Amino acid sequence: MGGLMTDGCRPCVVIWTIFLLSSVMGYKPVIIVHGILDGPRQFEILAKFINQSHPGTSVTTLALYDYIGSMKPLWQQVDGFREAIRPIMESTDDGVHLICFSQGGLICRGVLATLPTHNAHSLILLSSPLAGQYGDSSYLKHFFPKFIKSRLYHFCYTTCGQRISICNYWNDPHQRERYLKSSIYLAPLNGEIEHANSTAWRDSFLRIQTLVLIGGQDDGVITPWESSIFGFYDSNQTVVEMEKQDWYLRDAFGLKTLNSEGAVVKCVVPGVHHTSWHSNHTVYKNCIDKWLT
């Protein structure tokens, strides 16, 4: 009977419907970059959220430097992630969306800085220590059980220390000179020190269409939590907001310009612990969903 559909055909119709929806709506590919000590498995719920609200979206959670491998130096990780991200970007003329969690946010910034032809439409940074980390956490105690935060600079600000990812963004507000002298990742990335690639990295940063900064006061890991929205401690451990940071005022890497164009969005959500950001539907609905079109 021409008007009847057999059970065997229904899956085909569903697949074609999803394909057509994706084509008509023009959903851009989404790339997810994990954080420290986790991997693709932790982002299955987020991928599910995306495909529920944007059917047919290509979602790739990169399985690189996961779990213990996430402790490798960040520039090494950037090289690997860049080579995995580049072909996905090259496969689409419309651009891609990047969702980068925790340490992954700093990796994504490094990737985009060193990929001058990138086509990142939305860069969504999910509870990432963008201005650095200075706080005791379960992650810190796991790897440095004998150190307290006030003394960790003795290790992190050495050549050996800079071979461990956490030390690449350890920002001790009481050891400013040592940080600027020793930091091979965060300080140059945020334009806190002059380097040969400053202009090129700034130009690459300004190719981002929308920068979404997500964090909250109950995170419990990122310290201060305002680092997830580019705030950080001064020497008295008073938080200085993004707009009053020296590198922002100098527009060292383009953040001030991007913000003046209305391209920077802050989404602060209370009541969310660090490991729950990517599985919290309220966070997805209010902070992520609208930027994935």
Q: Your description of this structure?
A:
α4 (103-113) links the parallel β3 and β4 (120-126). A six-stranded parallel β-sheet has the order 2-1-3-4-5-8, with helices on both faces. A two-stranded antiparallel ribbon has the order 6-7. It is α/β, with parallel strands linked by helices. The chain is built from 13 helices and eight strands. It has helices at residues 10-25, 44-53, 74-90, 103-113, 138-143, 153-156, 165-168, 176-182, 186-189, 198-205, 246-249, 255-260, 281-288, and strands at residues 30-33, 59-61, 96-101, 120-126, 210-215, 232-233, 239-240, 264-268.
In short:
The protein is an alpha/beta fold. It has helices spanning 10-25, 44-53, 74-90, 103-113, 138-143, 153-156, 165-168, 176-182, 186-189, 198-205, 246-249, 255-260, 281-288, and strands at residues 30-33, 59-61, 96-101, 120-126, 210-215, 232-233, 239-240, 264-268.
Features:
293 residues, disordered N terminus, alpha/beta, 8 strands, two-stranded antiparallel sheet, 13 helices, 12% strand, globular
Helix content: 25-40%
pLDDT < 50 runs, ≥5 residues = 1-24
Series of H and E elements: HEHEHEHEHHHHHHEEEHHEH
Large-scale geometry:
globular
Major pleated sheet: 6 strands, parallel
Mean pLDDT: 90
Span between termini: 40 Å
Number of helices: 13
Radius of gyration: 20 Å
Oligomeric grouping of the chains: single chain
Q: Can you list the strand order of the major beta sheet?
A: 2-1-3-4-5-8
Strand content: 5-15%
* Derived structural class: alpha/beta
Number of beta-strand segments: 8
